[in-house]
């Protein structure tokens, strides 16, 4: 089965944080695009980074590793990182490998923004 191309779009939010919208397959073949987007985050990230996973169609162990790398990358500068919108399969994967204890997950980007800016 061919990969669905990965797109990662960065949106600065009016609340001062950064929203990343991820769409497509987050896997071994597309991890480089995700890594570059994380490395290219602006130095000033305000109250946090929100990664919207609602457009992710597939995620493998490499994709999970990339999410952990993103967490460590933002945390090294003291910036909170939260996830939003994972589908049921991805939510289950996060739970199985224990990443539900590492990440705070919200249903929508709006809920994440509200929590980070409260």
TrEMBL record:
TM regions (residue ranges): none
The protein's superkingdom reads Bacteria
Q: Which InterPro entries match?
A: Anti-sigma_ant (IPR003658), STAS_dom (IPR002645), STAS_dom_sf (IPR036513)
Any Pfam family hit: STAS
Query: STAS domain: from which residue to which, for each copy?
Result: 16-116
Gene3D superfamilies, A to Z: STAS domain (3.30.750.24)
Q: Which CDD domains match?
A: STAS_anti-anti-sigma_factors
Family, per entry: Belongs to the anti-sigma-factor antagonist family.
Cross-referenced PANTHER family, in alphabetical order?
ANTI-SIGMA FACTOR ANTAGONIST TM_1081-RELATED, ANTI-SIGMA FACTOR ANTAGONIST TM_1081-RELATED-RELATED
Name of the protein in question: Anti-sigma factor antagonist
């Amino acid at each position: 089965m061919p990969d669905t191309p990965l797109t990662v779009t960065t949106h600065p939010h009016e609340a001062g944080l950064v929203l990343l919208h991820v769409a497509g397959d987050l896997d071994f073949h597309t991890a480089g695009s995700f890594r570059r987007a994380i490395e290219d985050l602006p130095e000033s990230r305000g109250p946090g980074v929100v990664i919207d996973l609602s457009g992710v169609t597939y995620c493998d162990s490499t994709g999970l590793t990339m999410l952990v790398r993103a967490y460590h990358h933002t945390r090294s500068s003291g910036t909170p990182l939260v996830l939003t919108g994972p589908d049921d399969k991805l939510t289950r994967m996060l739970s199985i490998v224990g990443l539900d204890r590492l990440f705070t997950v919200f249903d929508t980007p709006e809920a994440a923004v509200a929590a980070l800016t409260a």
